[in-house]
Amino acid sequence: MGRTKWAYPATVVVVAGATFLITQLLFSVRERKEEGRRQYFKLAELTEETTDPLVWGKNFPSQYDGYKRTVDTERTRHGGSEAFQKLEEDPRWRRIFAGYAFSSDYREERGHAYSLLDQDETARVKLFKQPGACLQCHAGNMREVYRKAGNGDIQSGFEAVCRMELKEARKLVSHPVTCVDCHAPDSLQLRVSRPGFINGIRAYKASQGIADYDANVHATRQEMRSFVCGQCHVEYYFRGENKVVTYPWSKGLKVEQIESYYDEEGWKDWTHQETGAPVLKAQHPEFEMWNQGIHSRSGVACADCHMPYKREGAIKISDHHVRSPLLNIARACQQCHNYPERELLARAEAIQDRTKLLMTRAEEAIIEMMDAVVAARQRGADENSLHAALNLHRKAQWRLDYVAAENSMGFHAPQEAARILGEAIDYARQGQIAALRGK
Questions:
Q1: What's residue 271's pLDDT?
Q2: Least CB-packed of 106, 213, 252, 342 within 10 Å?
Q3: In a 10 Å sphere around its CB, with 0-12 CB exposed, 13-18 middle and 19+ buried, how is residue 380 labelled?
Q4: What is the pLDDT of residues 53-70, one digit of tens each?
Q5: CB neighbours of residue 382 within 10 Å
Q6: Backbone angles phi, psi at 348, to 5 degrees
Q7: Mean pLDDT computed over every residue of the chain
Q8: What is d(CA 10, CA 14) in angstroms, rounded to the nearest whole number?
Q9: Residue 326, C-beta contacts closer than 8 angstroms, at least 6 positions apart
Q10: How, if at all, do strands 244-246 and 278-279 pair?
């Protein structure tokens, strides 16, 4: 009888409680969905002239917070964003770059927020005359600078700024790499804004049989998540008297295809001070090397690893604290690789350790080849007898520098990096033998 008396009130309480909880859950789900749809609150008007990232940060505080953190100086075993002097860490590079600006200053790059300041401070700018072409990747909103310089025509403005002296062109800019360089202010869509890349990828696609390629029209969203990085993390040179930034991709993206392009153009970055070889300087060919690796072939974009997605409430955003994936393995790597962090780090470092050992062997081989050429000159060898050795110096140094300048220490394409360094060692030893024989 007692149980029957309390059964009905108890049922009412349980049902009411359950109803309340379900209602609260539904309200929470609804709020989350609404939050997810509302990606940002428009507090500032953004236009093509909005260069200052602080203004963008009013609408996108989370992304701006990540961008500001690119000033962090974090190290991995073989790199990072601390501006240490590589010439002090490995003095051999002073001889490898003898006669060129890099023999005076060769520092590790820092994050995006430092892209303009670091250029201002390097001895390569303070001690050597440089063109305005450098600003294409070091300064923010160059698209608008080019538009104004070209009276509305971006390409002609691009060429005009490239041929200016850097100290004059520097007056046109005030911010480092910024939001508008990768996002259209009206739609926020990813885009490519650097003319060097737009022209370069068109030339590359033409070599693949695809005519009139426009990255901003034809690229998929996933491709664009690599293209926006490939705007600047590439190999390039300053072509002709006007110093136009040019990506040497018309024959392909592999190291020997780029070399072939330079050979046909008769291009050299400088004449080596010790040997007299017409040598090349690799820039930072991350995009080209990534294209040869398994991640690229699997459809993994640069942003997937260097700007992995994260949740803030119901909103999913890319982490704008751009950095090495090895500093963020849980979100950068474990989304695809179901292994412990320690194992993933060990795998990556094993690749990098092996690449570093090969790189050291290539450095030693090139130094010994240089010694052999210098000794041959002291014996009275003429240019004709050293022609083969100097050509091999060019080939060996190009390959060594290509891997050294590429900022993944071989990780973007391990087998390709090993192949390139193996060729560097081989060419250096051939050059050494040719110099010893006086040929």
A1: 98
A2: 342
A3: exposed
A4: 999 999 999 999 999 998
A5: 10
A6: -65, -45
A7: 91
A8: 6
A9: 76, 345, 348, 349
A10: unpaired
In eight-state DSSP terms, residue 103 is G
> What's the chain's length in residues?
439
Give how far Cα 434 sits from Cα of 73, 387, 391, Å: 45, 9, 10
Tokens of 133: 């072409």
Cα-Cα-Cα-Cα dihedral of 177, 183, 185, 189, to 10°? 180
Asked if residue 241 lies in contact with residue 163, where contact means CB atoms within 8 angstroms, the answer is: yes
Tokens of 325: 């994936």
The tokens for 404 are 């050294």
Residue with tokens 């602080």: 54
**Strand, coil or helix: what is 130?**
coil
Residue 246 pairs in a beta bridge with 237
CA dihedral 247, 324, 416, 258 (to 10 degrees): 10
- In the structure encoding, which two tokens stand for residue 32, read together? 């989350």
Parallel, antiparallel or unpaired: strands 315-318 and 278-279: unpaired
N-term to C-term CA, the chain: 114
Reply yes or no on whether the pLDDT at 104 is more than 60: yes
In this predicted structure, the answer to whether residue 14 has a pLDDT above a threshold of 90 is: no
**Distance, CA of 344 to CA of 340 (rounded, Å):** 6
Q: Are 373 and 393 in contact (CB under 8 A)?
A: yes
pLDDT at residue 7, rounded to an integer: 65
Q: How far is CA 73 from CA 106, 248, 264, 323, in A?
A: 17, 32, 41, 10
CA distance 43 to 323: 28
Place of tokens 């029957």: 4
